[in-house]
Write a structure and sequence with these properties.
The protein is mainly alpha-helical. It has one domain. It has 16 helices and no strands. Helix 5 packs parallel to helix 13. The longest helix has 27 residues.
């Protein structure tokens, strides 16, 4: 009987989603998404087929006419897409009525403070910025430690769900366990599965294929794996929280929505959008940065509509920090000692975003 009711509810939600897509706001979102996809596909095809460029690469940022036109298109497409999403929101929805916790705003302020401090360090002393980006420095271990923390929190959450899941769906447990495993694997990849800690050698065949001769798999195709990781993190940590706040409250209270990142995750994770000089020419990276900018602006505008001045200021300043921080790295990027330097800082703030995400999931679960 319960299964029948769940199936009926899912069919009802499917019909509602189809009706939404057919309506004016839904059509605007679909048109914006298709425009963005078509434009990015055309630019990618031109670069790979005509210019002969690899899809993923690390190189100094280029500002010739073609790249400026491409950046302008990405900027406009992201702005139109986010605006269409906000206009198509359910009424009521979390974006219009939910308030952010003061602790969440403080966590976001701390994350942006750390990011801006790193940007200031680069502006003042690129050699010190480079020094902290080296392997086995506290920056790298902090990235791995935050990922271990995130994976551990979700593993504990999965354990609690398994104990309380008698007679219920196993999907929430599987999602928690799968996310925990993914984050723990990412943490182990960050430290090359403890190779430098325990001092074991890389197998010969892996060393030949690995770009850095290390015992990990992401460096079999470093540029491609970084691009996928950076873009995926931007979507998960920054765009999904906005989408969560656009759906009806009844849907957002569903158990599976426990795993959709909340608004505070976007605020804490958004500093990842600052550190992009060596990857700025890649469309997915630009897309992630510009989505972060417009998502911050969307949250700020929603807070102003609610007359929540503190939250509006927090997200408004976050948008300014994303734009100003990225501009600083693009302008001063040629002074960077090595192109991968900014990547290590970006990975730190991605790990921080995932750690905060895991904390919010575990905290919500502990509150029932």
């Amino acid at each position: 009987m319960l299964a029948l009711l769940r199936n009926q509810a899912m069919r009802g939600q499917g019909r509602a989603a189809a009706a939404w897509v057919a309506a004016g706001p839904g059509r605007a979102v679909l048109a914006g998404a298709l425009l963005t996809l078509a434009g990015l596909s055309a630019f990618t095809l031109y670069e790979t087929a005509w210019l002969g460029l690899p899809i993923a690469r690390e190189e100094p940022a280029v500002f010739d006419l073609y790249h400026l036109v491409r950046s302008a298109f990405t900027f406009l497409a992201c702005g139109l897409l986010v605006a269409a999403l906000v206009r198509a929101r359910a009424r009521p929805c979390g974006l219009d009525r939910d308030l952010s916790r003061p602790s969440s705003l403080l966590a976001g302020a701390a994350a942006f403070g750390a990011a801006l401090a790193a940007a200031a360090l680069f502006a003042v002393d690129p050699s010190a910025f480079h020094l902290h980006a080296q392997e086995d420095r506290p920056l790298e271990w902090a990235s791995a430690g935050l990922l271990f923390l995130a994976g551990g929190l979700l593993a504990l959450d999965a354990l609690r769900r398994s104990r309380a899941g008698a007679g219920r769906s196993h999907l929430p447990f599987l999602l928690a366990a799968g996310l925990a495993l993914a984050l723990l694997v990412m943490a182990m990849e960050e430290i090359s599965w403890g190779q430098r800690l325990f001092g074991f050698a890389t197998p010969e065949r892996l060393a030949e294929a690995n770009w850095q001769g290390e015992f990990n798999f992401h460096n079999l195709q470093t540029d491609l794996s970084e691009t996928v990781y950076f873009f995926g993190a931007s979507i998960f940590l920054i765009l999904l929280p906005l989408l969560r706040d656009l759906v009806p409250p009844a849907l957002a209270r569903q158990r599976l929505f426990d795993f959709v990142p909340r608004r505070s995750v976007a605020l804490v994770g958004a500093p990842l959008a600052l550190f992009n000089y060596g990857h700025w020419n890649l469309l997915p990276v630009q897309l992630g940065t510009m989505l972060a900018l417009f998502v911050m602006l969307a949250f700020a505008a929603a807070a102003r509509r609610r007359r929540d001045r503190v939250e509006a200021a927090a997200f408004g300043l976050a948008a300014v920090a994303v734009a100003a921080g990225e501009a600083l790295f693009l302008v001063l990027g040629p002074a960077m000692t090595e192109l991968p330097d900014a990547t290590e800082y970006k990975e730190l703030f991605i790990a921080l975003g995932f750690a905060w995400y895991a904390f919010t999931v575990a905290r919500r679960r502990s509150l029932g």
